[in-house]
Amino acid sequence: MEESRQKLIGENGLRIDGRKPDELRPIRMEVGLLANADGSAYIEQGKSKIIVAVYGPREVHPKHLGLSDRAIVRCRYHMAPFSTQERKSPAPSRREIELSKIIREAFEPVIFSEYYPRSMIDIFIEVLQSDGGTRCAGITAASLALADAGIPLRDLVASCAVGKVEGCLIVDLNDEEDKEGEADMPVAYIPALDTVSLLQMDGQLTEEEFVEALKMAKEACMRIYQMQKQALKQKYVEAKEAVEEQE
Ligand code: ADP
Fold first, then answer.
1. pLDDT tens, residue by residue, 49-67
2. Would you list the domain boundaries of the chain?
3. Which CATH superfamily hosts domain 24-246?
4. pTM metric for this prediction
């Protein structure tokens, strides 16, 4: 234990990548980069790199699968074979099937699916490079891709994990912290509704730690939320500048 204490949290209280416990990894977001999707977004969070494409609302095929009162929302979370250190099989694993389901559910409270009966909305999350926190970064980017597709949303969903390593609560775990740590708790938060739409727990926290971890997760999500809004605006700033240059 003493050996591992020095491993993930240094004597100066900083983490292996030099971050403070409540510090996010460097995050870069870009909106609208795929020409052939209705909406798209790219996120880099530390070394994790994810691209998201959204299609819809579009007609359901076969038609009998359509719902008369709302759109069907589908989600596919997938890790590219080259996204992990060891080549990952391209076939969907149990983990990817589970993540696809919980990510779809994380968006249920925000999508105005009742506006689009008999149609469907598809979210494709492709993990290009994986270094932990990909379900959360995938949700953060999928929010942007949904907004970019013009799908009416009650709010964006922002997502971040909190975990415990060597007794210390930390936000936005990288792969090593995720694997070596005592607990990992991914959270998706909808600020306008003050709703948590995803909360999972791998490992154990005490009740007090859980309360503190949830508070830290919400705070981290709020910081990510500001970045999301900035990334959405940036697309239009760039479009405006391009038009002005032409004039
Ligand atoms: P998250 O990426 O949301 O943290 P997990 O906690 O399930 O999801 O996984 C943590 C990390 O483990 C992933 O980001 C990835 O780096 C690694 N990982 C997951 N699945 C595989 C796999 N099939 N092969 C290699 N590494 C994987």
1. 999 999 999 999 899 999 9
2. 24-246
3. GHMP Kinase, N-terminal domain (3.30.230.70)
4. 0.95
